[in-house]
């Protein structure tokens, strides 16, 4: 995203706080007016001190009082302006994070699957924080700086327009230096932000899979990858910081030259106009020198925050890129499925995650209501992809999938997914009570229904051993074992009793004796329901009505267990490989 587009989006967010924005501008004007009045009063005070024994003390005391009032007004208005800036920056931060987090809920899974989760989290947390810091720092400098520059110019032209021209003609040097450095630092800070997000994604992945890392002794390889990313982050951070540190000394040098020029020309003007009607006094020169410093000071302050502002723009661009991502197609206006009978048909379905890499091509089969369909095959053959298509986590590239004769693209996702019950190898447990976890899919279930489902899944006994039974808060690591979590997921499905089931090694974390009991409960649950069973242990699907054997995204064999063994094909190879000596 270009900087101009990013700035326009920032301004749209700022427009939501018009009151505080207007208050900031008014307070900035007050701050500048009272600040600029002080050098003028000081110049008058210098002229009141003519020499030894010739000092106009009454007027000096009035000037001191006026200067005190100006300083007090400046401090009070700056405090109020700081409050307004904080309000604008943090409300804007809250709204942008809310929009980004809300966008995650409507993004297609293809977006999240293509990126490390830590990278997306880094955009919402770190980049948003960096943007807020840069915005907060830049607000005060921006408004007061612009107002100070304009105010000083007006006063200097009134006092002595010749000296004002000296300052004006030298101004482009500061502007050129600031613009040159800004154009280079933006790209560097954007690279720094992207590399930092990459590093966050790696850390998140390693921590989330630390058991796997240790099991395969992969620590050194991970350290090497981390060191490489860390070195890139160090290099791009140093370049960004180096360039961001150059504006201040550069503009200070230019401003010192301007100050010296004003002092030199002003001194000659004082001498040349002494005793004339249009005399330029020493007090006037003192005021002009103060104003020349105040004129150049905003350039120094703006140059100091220019690095932060460029960093803020780079972070904002990444944040807006997430917010502007294309959402999954809306299903508003689609029909509600109601309670399905369970007839599912795939007709010439084709799908791939990347256009150049084919996965599923021309896949067709029909599952009548009440069928048990087992899906088997080697890793990467498309088993999980097929489940994602049935649940419409992805839309097919070609062909169609229908439920009870309706194309699933013509019905709402919510009503479709409500008709499915899923038990996967990965458990879905939220930080809540056991009761809330069990009733997640059916909040209106009665106590008797919940306990019956827990007993059917053989989870009731360990639940009652928990400190508070069904009211025990779970979700933290160490409270439940993986097997107990999986039993809760099974109980959740048994409580909902949906017309269609998807079981992906649903008993993989359960001990053998409990598995036999749960399998019996599953057999009762599956009666009259369409079931898709993704199986890795082929001994668990011997009673399936239909076994689909997948390879490279295609169904290479289909039939019942005995039929497929008699064919001595790919299924037989997979089956006997599990029982080989």
Characterization of this structure:
It is a single chain. The protein has 19 helices and 14 strands. Helix 2 packs antiparallel against helix 10, helix 6 packs antiparallel against helix 8 and helix 14 crosses helix 16. The chain is elongated and about 120 Å long. With 581 residues, the chain is an alpha/beta fold. The chain has two domains: 321 residues, ABC transporter type 1, transmembrane domain (ABC transporter transmembrane region fold, Up-down Bundle); 235 residues, Rossmann fold (3-Layer(aba) Sandwich), CATH 3.40.50.
Number of domains: 2
CATH level 1 class label of the largest domain: Mainly Alpha
Give the % helix: 55-70%
- CATH-defined topology of the largest domain: ABC transporter transmembrane region fold
- CATH architecture of the largest domain, by name, is Up-down Bundle
Counting DSSP E segments of at least 2 residues, the number of strands comes to: 14
Estimate the mean pLDDT confidence: 81
Gap from first CA to last CA: 60 Å
Low-confidence stretches: none
The fraction of residues in strands falls at 5-15%
- Tell me the strand order in the biggest sheet: 8-11-12-5-13-14
Task: Report the biggest beta sheet as strand number plus sense, adding barrel if it closes.
Answer: 6 strands, mixed
Give the arrangement of secondary structure elements.
Blueprint: H1 3-14, H2 18-48, E1 49-51, E2 54-55, H3 57-106, H4 109-113, H5 117-159, H6 161-208, H7 210-215, H8 219-245, H9 247-273, H10 282-323, E3 344-351, E4 360-367, E5 372-376, H11 383-390, E6 398-403, E7 406-407, H12 413-418, E8 420-423, E9 432-433, H13 434-438, H14 447-456, H15 460-464, E10 473-474, H16 482-496, E11 500-504, H17 512-526, E12 530-534, E13 546-551, E14 554-559, H18 561-567, H19 570-578
Parallel strand pairs: 5-12, 5-13, 8-11, 11-12
Antiparallel strand pairs: 1-2, 3-4, 3-6, 6-7, 9-10, 13-14
Helix pairs in contact: 1-10, 2-3, 2-5, 2-10, 3-5, 3-10, 5-6, 5-10, 6-8, 6-9, 6-10, 8-10, 9-10, 14-16
């Amino acid at each position: 995203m270009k900087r101009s587009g990013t700035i326009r989006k920032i301004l749209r967010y700022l427009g939501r706080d018009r009151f505080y924005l207007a208050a900031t501008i008014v307070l900035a004007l007050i701050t500048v007016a009272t600040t600029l009045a002080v050098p003028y009063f000081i110049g008058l005070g210098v002229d009141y001190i003519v020499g030894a024994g010739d000092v106009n003390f009454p007027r000096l005391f009035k000037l001191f009082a006026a200067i005190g009032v100006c300083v007090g007004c400046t401090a009070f208005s700056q405090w109020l302006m700081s409050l307004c800036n904080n309000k604008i920056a943090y409300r804007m931060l809250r709204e942008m994070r809310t929009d980004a987090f809300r966008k995650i809920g409507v993004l297609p899974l293809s977006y999240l699957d293509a990126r490390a989760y830590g990278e997306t989290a880094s955009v919402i947390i770190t980049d948003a924080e960096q943007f807020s810091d840069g915005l907060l720092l830049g607000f005060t400098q921006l408004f007061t700086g612009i107002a100070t520059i304009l105010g000083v110019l007006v006063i200097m032209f009134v006092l002595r327009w010749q000296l004002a021209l000296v300052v004006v003609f030298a101004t482009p040097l500061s502007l050129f230096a600031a613009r040159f450095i800004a154009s280079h630092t933006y790209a560097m800070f954007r690279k720094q932000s992207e590399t930092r997000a990459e590093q966050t994604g790696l850390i998140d992945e390693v921590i989330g899979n630390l058991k796997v890392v240790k099991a395969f002794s992969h620590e050194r390889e991970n350290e090497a990858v981390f060191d490489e990313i860390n070195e890139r982050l160090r290099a791009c951070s140093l370049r960004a910081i180096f360039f961001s540190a150059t504006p201040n000394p550069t503009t200070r040098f230019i401003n010192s030259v301007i100050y010296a020029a004003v002092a030199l020309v002003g001194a000659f003007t004082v001498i040349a106009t002494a005793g004339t009607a249009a005399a330029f006094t020493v007090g006037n020169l003192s005021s002009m020198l103060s104003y020349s410093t105040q004129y150049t000071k905003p350039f120094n302050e703006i140059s100091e925050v220019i690095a932060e502002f460029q960093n803020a723009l780079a972070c904002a661009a990444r944040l807006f890129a997430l917010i502007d991502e294309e959402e999954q197609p809306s299903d508003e206006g689609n029909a509600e499925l109601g309670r399905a009978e369970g007839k599912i048909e795939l007709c010439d379905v084709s799908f791939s995650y990347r256009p150049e890499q084919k996965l599923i091509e021309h896949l067709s089969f029909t599952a009548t209501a009440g069928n048990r369909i087992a899906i088997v095959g080697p890793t990467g053959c498309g088993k999980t992809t097929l489940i994602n298509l049935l649940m419409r986590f992805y839309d097919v590239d070609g062909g169609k999938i229908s439920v009870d004769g309706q194309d699933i693209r013509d019905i709402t996702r919510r009503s479709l997914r409500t008709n499915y019950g899923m038990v996967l190898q990965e458990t879905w447990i939220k930080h809540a009570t056991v009761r809330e976890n069990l009733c997640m899919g059916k909040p209106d279930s009665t106590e008797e229904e919940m306990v019956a489902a827990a007993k059917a899944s053989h989870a009731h006994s360990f639940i009652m051993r928990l400190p508070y039974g069904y009211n025990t808060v779970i979700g933290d690591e160490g409270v439940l074992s993986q097997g107990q979590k999986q039993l809760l997921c099974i109980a959740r499905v048994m409580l909902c009793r949906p017309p269609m089931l998807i079981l992906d090694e649903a008993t993989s974390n359960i001990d053998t004796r409990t598995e036999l009991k749960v399998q019996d409960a599953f057999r009762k649950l599956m009666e009259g329901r369409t079931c898709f069973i993704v199986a890795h242990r082929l001994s668990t699907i011997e009673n399936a009505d239909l076994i689909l054997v997948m390879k490279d995204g295609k169904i290479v064999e289909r039939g019942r267990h005995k039929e497929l063994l008699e064919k001595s094909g790919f299924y037989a190879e997979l089956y006997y490989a599990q029982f080989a000596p």
